[in-house]
Design brief:
Number of helices: 8
Largest sheet: none
Order of helices and strands: HHHHHHHH
Oligomer: single chain
Structural class: mainly alpha
Helix content: over 70%
Low-confidence stretches: none
Strand content: under 5%
Length: 202
């Protein structure tokens, strides 16, 4: 985080983060809640499938509401970097997904794993970014990039899922048509009987 902040904040910025303090904050805001949630789901018998939606909604609201308040209080400052933040966030998201897919392809992983890796790389922990920006960096202007990255990562993930499923359906239809063609051509001719067409169904 220190190296990245110094690279993108200009030559005059002097940013130094304590490794122990940063690690403890990440532990308390990310690792500990996830561990507690996994333990509760394993030990307590509850309708977790239904509760997960409510928990996700509450967690998202707990992040977006303070973020909206920060934007409102710093609207003039954030408006100045609106264009560059939007372009940079979209470019970062798309490029990282492409790199992830390319590396998975270079490793000769199956198609499904390539897509999964690309989506996982594109989706980042927005709540962790808010914690680092507000409690460690203490620079609200950095939050505008995360607020543009949040919708960009979900939009690109959903778009990739949609396009992948569409490609799978087309590939399945093509394979079915090819299989029907081979089946029809392999059917022996029976001159003494009327020809019956071979039907393929899904």
């Amino acid at each position: 985080v220190s190296i990245g902040a110094q690279m993108f904040s200009g030559d005059e910025a002097q940013i130094s983060l304590s490794f122990i303090d940063t690690a403890l904050r990440v532990l308390l805001t990310t690792a500990l809640p996830v561990s507690l949630g996994m333990a509760a789901r394993a030990l307590i018998s509850l309708p977790w499938d239904k509760l997960t939606r409510w928990i996700f909604g509450l967690g998202l609201a707990a992040v977006l509401i303070p973020s909206a308040r920060i934007i409102f209080n710093n609207s003039e400052m954030m408006a100045q970097s609106l264009g560059s933040a939007a372009i940079g966030s979209v470019a970062l998201n798309v490029s990282m997904m492409a790199i992830g897919f390319g590396l998975a392809a270079a490793a000769r992983l199956p198609e499904q794993q390539r897509r999964t890796i690309a989506i996982e790389i594109g989706i980042q922990n927005f709540a962790l970014a808010v914690v680092i920006i507000m409690s460690i960096l203490k620079d609200p202007s950095c939050l505008v990039h995360g607020l543009f990255y949040l919708p960009a990562m979900y939009f690109s993930g959903v778009a990739m899922i949609y396009l992948s499923r569409r490609a799978d359906r087309k590939r399945a239809a093509w394979d079915l048509a090819e299989a029907c063609s081979r089946q029809t051509s392999a059917t022996p001719r029976q001159p003494r009987r009327p020809s019956v067409p071979v039907l393929c169904s899904t």
